[in-house]
Amino acid sequence: MSLHISFELSESDVNHFREVMQRGCQTNQGASSQQIIDQANKLLDEINRSDASDFIRDRMNQLEVLVAMIVDTGWGLIEEDRERVLAALSYFSEPEDLIPDDIPGLGFLDDAIMIEIACSELEFEIHAYKEFVMYRAAEAGRRGEDAPTPRRSDWLEERRQQLHSRMRRRRKGRRGSGTSKSPFSLL
Q1: d(CA 100, CA 103)
Q2: What ranges do the domains of the chain cover?
């Protein structure tokens, strides 16, 4: 039998978690990128060895995505986005959690909440990265294993071409529906 429990964090609750996250960032300000990534991976290992709930495990999948965004050389985050992701990950380098991790059933709840907050603030970056990963996998399947691995610039160029193609189709569809020719068109 499963039990569904839900709760809502008020704006002040979320602000409290953000303040805690910010303190964690300040505490770990001297840590290297690699140290922050290692601590996040350590937390993932601890959770994988634990009997954490599905709720916690689902959030940890998002933590894996954040780590992947940093270490994926093909994605090549711009420095500003890299700093934002590292700041989010730095909370997990903090040895003093709001809820100690060794408390059965609840120990990783604060980590899951922090991941939820970080992911909501990095929503667009995460969405773009997931699209890039799907593009890269599709291209690898299409091109074969011997082809060079697509990079972010390849994906962006593909997206640009798709947008231009969609604009041309829409323009062509508008002309075909009896709409008069655009005064800007030379054709």
Answers
A1: 6
A2: 11-122, 133-175
